[in-house]
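Justification of computing resources. Each target in the renewal requires a structure prediction run like the one illustrated here; the chain below, 627 residues long, is used simply to show the kind of job we budget for.
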Amino acid sequence: MEPHIACGSSWLVDLPDDILAIIGRSLSPRDICNLSLCCRSLSVLGAFDKIWLTQCEALGIVSSRDLVEWRKAVLSYKALCRFLTSVKPLVGIWVHQNPELGNVVYVMPGFASVVGCRIIPQELGPLGVEDGPILWAPVFEVLSDDNGSPAFVLHGRDKDQDCIYTGSVKSVEKTCNVLLLEVEPKKEKNRNHFVHEGNLECHSDEEMGRKVLKSDNQRSKSQRAVDRSSVIVPFSKLSFGDRRKLLEIVTSRVRMQVPDSTCSSLFPCLRGDEEKFRKDVAELSERRAMLITMHKHGEGYIDRTASHELPFSPNQIDLSEIKKILDRSSGFRHSISGDDTRTHCARRKRLGDYVKDSIKQMLRKSSSMNGGRGTMKNSSSSGENKQAQLHDFLSSGDTIGLTLQASTMKLSSYRAWPNMHDSRFALYKLPVRTPTVGQEYAGLWGGTFGWPPGKPTEDKPGKALFFLVLSYYEESPGQRLLIATKILEGTHYVLHPNGSAMFIVNVAEPSTESFPWNSGEDSTAVGVKEAFSGEGIAHGYGFRYPGSKPGSLFVLEDGVLAFLWKETRSVLTLKRLHLEELLKKGERVPALPPIANFSYLTKSCSNVFVGFANMTTSLSSPRRNHS
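Resulting structure tokens:
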């Protein structure tokens, strides 16, 4: 009798769990899915928790210890990997140029979720950057449901009440650099051949094409003709007024008041006090389950039977209701019927009006050309001016809902600061490089003016907090620049706009200047590791065109960076920041109304967050002699 010869797949499955997990580290999620489809004996790999745990660890979003806690909130590590893979591109720093003091949103892990937190412009007390409580406000969350599919929740404030505004995650591209808040019409009837958004098994374009072609052949010629004639209008093609109005209407309809338990922190405390950490995890797990239930079934959900189900998802609004609301608004009456109000106004214009409009248009063009880095050059291009009609947009669905879309766009930049559209409800991802050999000082830094670092004085009990992103650039041979871009300023009235280069130094040119202080905080000796020559920001021709004055960047032995203006002897001291840790030790303050909370589009040189009752610091407006 011939001995039974096991196939190679059987040998693989019979390997110890730890060995399989090690093998899984060299595979991608797609490889594991494809491998599990090869034969029956390998299909067990697709449900093997340990191999998916290694995939979650490889993504590097949360620690292995935290993954164990997150796993309890979902069905499997495969579901958790599905979620982490979809939201990983969101993690990082997102910015907008308005208001000028800073519009910084940091997306970080929550609990089975990622959380967007706005850093509030603020001053620091005597404890400094590392130990002082950083003020932050919640902007949005993307939570994982039991199967690992993402659920979008926008935070906001309405009539002094904390609210959430539920929606869907439309798409998250791997290389996304723009985060858009939009609304999207959706067909609730005759849904077919939709692929689950979070599915890890990827389908090729050819395979999807065959499915679409097959379903297309099964329909009548008249149906196909109607489909081809209807063009889906992107939300971005609508006028700014239409987009804002739709967002306002939809957020008002999907608004839900949140129970007190959801007003606590959105992430657990730092590991250290294990008892406190366990308590936080238990509360966050309960909070997440409640939010997912509200997202799926609406506010005040009581276990309904099938006969009492809502006609639409609580995140979707019947478009007929939206059209009635818009029809009652005089500014939209002609727009939704296919006759734009702007057309009627144009007919009644006189010759003088045309002359005035032409002059205004010329001035706007001149302003956009001379506005510098703060305005996107193509924001007034012909493509942007070709606005779609509202009725065309609304005719492509039965319901409409709030969506979060992370897209990849071709963006220009000026000194590491992206050029942005002024009229899009969007946040822009800021590339923050990891320190490497030869680029040791790249990354996020925070600090204040004065020496010793962060020490308050009698006349100034608080120091304005600055966030700077340091980046390296090779402009020419022998000139390797280190640029410090300001993204946050903790004063009451801004001295320099967002995206300003606070200083630029040539790391290929050592400085001959000496550091003027021999001792630092607590009278400790100060050692200088190296120094570079450069220029620091100073007031020049107007707010948008700051000048520069010579200075030096000193790298101190304790890791502190100090830029010294040569003439004024003003000094800006910086320490490397770990935002996730700072936020976990920070203090939460109320959010803005939902749309403004996502991206504050109104230009402002003053601190729009100063009215918060929870803010314990007084934000003054110091004029510094460095500028």
